Structures are given as structure tokens and as C-alpha cells.
Amino acid sequence: MSDIEIRDDRAAGRLEALGGAGEVVGRIEYFVLESPAPALVPVHTIVEPAHEGQGIAGSLARELYGIAAREGVPVAPLCPYVVKWAARHPEEAPPADPALLAAAKDWLRAHPGRF
Q1: If we measure between CA atoms, which residue out of 60, 114, 46 comes closest to residue 105?
Q2: Mean of the per-residue pLDDT values of the chain
Q3: How many CA atoms lie within 13 A of 17 on its CB side?
Q4: Can you tell me the distance from the alpha carbon of 46 to that of 70, in angstroms, rounded to the nearest whole number?
Q5: Which distant-in-sequence residues (6+ apart) come within 8 Å of 111 by Cβ?
Q6: DSSP per residue over 38-64, as a string?
Q7: Which DSSP letter does residue 75 get?
Q8: How far are the Cα atoms of 10, 54, 76, 109 from residue 88, in angstroms, in the given order?
Q9: For the chain, N or C: smaller number of CB within 10 Å?
């Protein structure tokens, strides 16, 4: 894992893990919820098969929560992996606000082609 770099491509809605050669080996696809309050909403976590089992998905989830904490916004996870990761790391991942989760689900239904 030491040769993995994590980059936030906010415009594209991706938190990317880059391998030693600069190739994307994993990512979290997310969007920024604006209403009823700002929140980061992870929808999918993907790790390339050749890189599974190396802790990349967990590093991505940890960084997503770190970004949210630095920006002072919550995370409203819809991605099953991030939901499970958060449950295992409550010290790093505060519980999601049910109202934000509901708003995030509504946003996703309103934008069916986005993910």
C-alpha cells in the first residue's frame, strides 16, 4: 500500500487510488449533496481485480471521511462497502444523519444516469 496515492477529483465525483505507475487501481464514486445540507455521498467503491485485498478500498473510505472532516461536512454513504467500513470504524466515521441519507437517495433517483 505504500506506493498508493489518493487523489480527489471532485469535478468528476471520484476519489481515486493511483498505483506506482500512476494508473487508477481503485476509486470511490460520489456526489456532493447540497440540500438539505452539504454532504459527501459515496455511491460505489471499485478496486481493480489485480489490486483487491491490499486495503485500497479501506484507504479510500478513510480518506473520504478525512476529507469530509476537514471540510466540516458529513458523509451520507449509499455505497454498501462504505456503510460497512463506517460501522467497523465509528471513531473515524460518525453515524449518518437519516434525513441526509433520505435526501441522498432522492437525489440519486432524480439523476438515474449519473451512476
Answers
A1: 114
A2: 95
A3: 25
A4: 24
A5: 31
A6: -EEEEEEEEE-GGGTTSSHHHHHHHHH
A7: B
A8: 26, 17, 16, 28
A9: N
